[in-house]
Amino acid sequence: MFINFQVNTKQQSKEQKLINVLLTLATGILTLIFPNFLYLIAGGYLLALGLMFMAFKFPGAVTALPIVAGALIFIFPELIPFTFAGFLGLFGLLMFFGLSFVVLGIITLIIAVLIIMNPDSVAYFIAFFMLTYAVSNLIQFYNQWKNKGPKEKSDGEIVIE
Questions:
Q1: Beta bridge partner(s), residue 55
Q2: Which of 3, 102, 8 is nearest to 59 (CA)?
């Protein structure tokens, strides 16, 4: 039996990036402020992420991953370290191999391993991942915004994209 799995990466829209950054940043801050409500925060984040992926028409496997992980966290809160570490591991592999975020993919894989090694500090590892991911997306969003200004062609014509 042959199974072909392909992740098509298109240029994300500004709205999608902004929603993703705000969702991730809010989740990271809430996790730092209220670590005792981690199962609600992490489960809600993963479900919202899956719904956002669904709204922006991502592939089914990519959409299902956060939804299943969020549902598992809500149903079995004691499995948060393993469920979130599994999500981060798969997400890190996707970033590492498919989405051209090699450095962030490596950091994500390291955080997944650290969560498994020290499940008592899972809230702080999750907050660190969320804040790192949000800042990375903010920097990328800013760089794209900065590069969208008027550009001059070689013959002196100005082009606005």
A1: none
A2: 8
